[in-house]
Design brief:
Largest sheet: 4 strands, mixed
Shape: globular
Radius of gyration: 22 Å
Strand content: 5-15%
Number of domains: 2
Number of strands: 4
Amino acid sequence: MNNLQTINGKAFELSHINLEKPVTKAFNFSSLSSSHQLRISDRVKRIEEEEVLHQLTKALIILVNPDDILLLEQPGSTNNEPSFKQVYVVLPPTEMCNKDMLLPYVEFLISRRFNFSIQLIDRSQVFSNFENADLFFQILHPQFQVLYSRPGLKPYPETITKELTEAKAVAKRRFDIHVEKSQTFLDLSDRARHLGQNGLSAYLLHQSLELLLRGLIKAWGKKEKKTHDLKTLILHCKRWIPLLYNLFPEEPDILKQLNNSYIDARYNQGFTISDDILEAARSSAVSLLSYTIAEMNRVLA
């Protein structure tokens, strides 16, 4: 794990915390200004995001008084999009009971940043994820950056010795089985649409996405999520691929339309859906499928 910088000072006294300088060295102003490999627009974005991370860390320390703040960066869905930043706020044990109350406040801090997400977690979960049960955390362990750490706490492990090759292979096999099924239902959806059966096409599209998301959950060795609601499944899968939700426009509400089709296409005779909505749904589904496959191939390589 890359411990970029620890803010020194007493745990609960903000006057002892020096935040005049950025809390992370992940983005270096001087190197950016002299780089011949980055376009000016890229430099501006990076400088802006360093400042966002600095201000976000400062606000989280004031609001939550965490044990640690960790950062995991993952690639954007395209080369032109910025990386996605998952911020893990490690709460003291005494604050975990307030997790549900705190979450809306910390999420408000990134409400206009589509490429940021925040998760609240406790230290025992972090250590367990890194060292024992969670394959995702074990694989990406070296990429985590420590933005802030309260002095005197046990450091996170620098290396994990567990053999991951076979575990990755098992995860890949589980995921690939669901990808094949998901693609089959996508093809069936296209055939139904070609025959003018838009309602059935939407239902099959829902099934394609549900199978893909369930495959993602199974690949990481997690228990089945007993729901057919695509929004719930995507929110559950965001911890592994945060950009999934961003692939669907807010208007029209594609996920709501597909969720409705799961029921209406079976029990509402004559149910249909407009060509425009169906086309938007298919486009988002294809984006989700291709992006998820690319991300899983990258992580499990």
